[in-house]
Hints:
globular, mainly beta, eight-stranded parallel sheet, 0% helix
Amino acid sequence: LTFGTVPASQFAGGTFNFTSTSGDINLAGNTNLGTGNFVMLANNGSILNDSTDITAANVTLTANSSIDVDTGAIIATATGGSIALRANTAVTTGDLNAPGAINIESRFCCSSPAVMIGDVGNSTAPQTLDIFGSTVDTGTITGAGDITIAANSGLLNIVGGVVTSIDGSTIDLRSSSGTTPFSFNSIDAGVTGTVRINSNIGIEQVFGG
């Protein structure tokens, strides 16, 4: 099933909720629900997008296979608005911005998607950020609370190597590559915060220049 542009005026303060029981969901145009919520479930397929942004009060995408927004951003606009992305094989997006929670994980308990996303929190930092993937590839991470990012069977790669959150927060990072150390530029949880890094074969700090 293919959707064109989804207009905010039709769902202001409400919810656009769609389930595909068989096959993929294709978003072929700009999706901006304003104060409306955006909920999609591809029960036996993927949720696909042509690189345009998805903007809504809260965004929940669930796919049995993959979520692929390509380079399109996902933006949650409500006070405390959240982004939840759940897929079994892969999650690919551009930048992610939400004032509440951002969560990326598998739809089921026993698998982890390959996660490839842009920057997180470059315009609105999330209160909590939880990412659980097989491999995880992200841009710069900016949080306003606790951050957990785990690559459970491969490399955690943070392009630019920068993770920042507010003072007193906890930043927990896990990389499971068997060949490449986890590398970073700077990780900052403030004076009273906590940083935990687990990496199978090493941790290295790399400075730009």
